[in-house]
Structures are given as structure tokens and as C-alpha cells.
Amino acid sequence: MKAGIGRRLWGAGVALLFSVAATPVWAETCVIDDADREVCLAQPASRIVALSPGATELVFAAGAGDQVVGVVSFSDYPPEAKQRQSVGSHTRLDLETVLSLEPDLLVGWVTGNPHEQLEKLQRLGMSLYLSEPRRFEEVATSLERLATLAGTRERGQVAADEFRAGVGELRERYADASPVRVFYQVWDEPLMTVNDEHLISQAISLCGGKNVFGELPRLVPRIGEEAVLAADPEAIVAGGMGEENRDWLDDWERFEELNAVRRDNLFFVPPSLIQRPTPRLLEGTRILCDHLETARGRH
């Protein structure tokens, strides 16, 4: 009798041992975000809320699109992102909706989200990764770090490697290109541009261009039309109020004294391809490089 009980207990112990061994064990995973903060998760994120359109693109590109449960307005890429629950805009989050989604990871925007709302979410126990790549390489490392937190490392690594390779090809192709003096218009009213710390200016440099306002102290400085006339760029590049809206460029055609106007060097790049720090920045930079190559031919 006792022997039978012993055998049953031994069998139960072996079964329990195999059950434990078959259960995935995740060590705590930590990364450093773009605000130089350590972000740690006990398990891979399974419910992610992205708090900017750029963050949404990065998470999907890192292979974690299936884990995204919430996004902000204008999160229009990839198309699947439009099917996710809206949590307000990046400038005003709907905290009640964010909390109702029970996220285990928020991906915020360093300078784009309201600090007080991010702080409140953290006080409520939310894990927050702050994103704002400022260099091409940081786009690649963002993919790697987000993939690490989401448990999609292989897919994130592939995306990061492809991005690095594409940037390397452009850097080699335009390394000896003659410089083109460029004004990039990021907004119309007030008139705004970018300095050399901005990713857009680094894209200009990658294509062999020179940002005529690159030395200004602010990342996104306000300027006047007079400043553009004084700088007299060889090319003017702009996005617009939409992916196909060239109205901002049309406004410059009245300044016939500008070299960019005389040479017909008024170029459009869809804003989502160059104003978001995501892998699609590579596509936008290729378009920009083609435009600047056209400008070179009109010297």
C-alpha cells in the first residue's frame, strides 16, 4: 500500500518537474530609451500603446504590430494601424482610454507628448519607453530596443540591418557630390525650418546638400521670408498639409529673385517619409537625394 502511494507521489513529482521545464521562463529585459532612461519588463510586452505616429511605425517595423492595441491620431502607417483603438492625439492623450486598454508598455514621444500626462501614467504604474531618434543610427537601434522589449528580436534585427545597409549605400553614392545649398520648410505659418541637429538636416547632408539654416540654435527654428531671401538657397524642399499637397512650394514662386525659383528647384517630399524618424525615412531620403541631384544638373 505504502509502496503504491510512494510510486504515485514520485510520478506526480516527475510530471510537475516536466511541466515546469516546459513553461517558458523570461528573464527581466532592460533597454535604455532615447531619454537615457532604463526601461525594464519582466515579460515581453503583449499590449503596447504607441503615443505618436512615428512610435506606431517603429513598433510595427520592429515586428510587434500584433501587440499594438492603441495608437494616436494620424497613425496611418502601416494600414493596419488604422484598425487599432484611438487614444487621442499626441498632444492630448485620452488617459481613460489608455488605461482601459491595460497596456504593459507605452511608447511615448520625448518632445511631442505632454509631460504631465506621461508622468501621471507612470505614477499609475505604466511602463514607459520614450522614443525620439535624432540620428540615422538611432532609428536602427530603436528598432532593436523595441524588438527586445516586445520579444521580436529577430524581426527587429532584420529591419535594423536593412535600414543601416540602405543608409550606407546612400552615403557612399553621394560622398563626393558637389554641395547644394538647401532650405527645408517644415511648416508654413509660422514659417519654420530645421537646424543641423535634426534628422531632416542629416538627410540633406547625406545627399550632399548643405542646410542654409543649419547653424541656428533651435532644433526647429522660426524664421521669416526675409531670412530665406537673404540665404538665397539653390533648392527649396518642403512637405505640406498632406501627402500630395505642394501649396507651400507654390507660394515661393512669387520670389523670382531666388536661385531656387529661377532654376525651378522647388521640390516636394511627402512629409510622412521624411518627418517621421522611422525606417521609411530611408525612402524619403532617396527621394530627397534624387531632387538634389536634379538641382546639381541645373547649376
From TrEMBL:
The keyword Iron does not apply. It comes from the Bacteria. Gene3D superfamilies: Nitrogenase molybdenum iron protein domain. This is Cobalamin-binding protein. The keyword Phosphoprotein does not apply. Keywords: Signal. Transmembrane segments: none annotated. InterPro entries: ABC_Transporter_SBP (IPR050902), ABC_transptr_periplasmic_BD (IPR002491), Vit_B12_bind_prot (IPR054828). Residues 47-296 form the Fe/B12 periplasmic-binding domain. Residues 1-27 form the signal peptide.
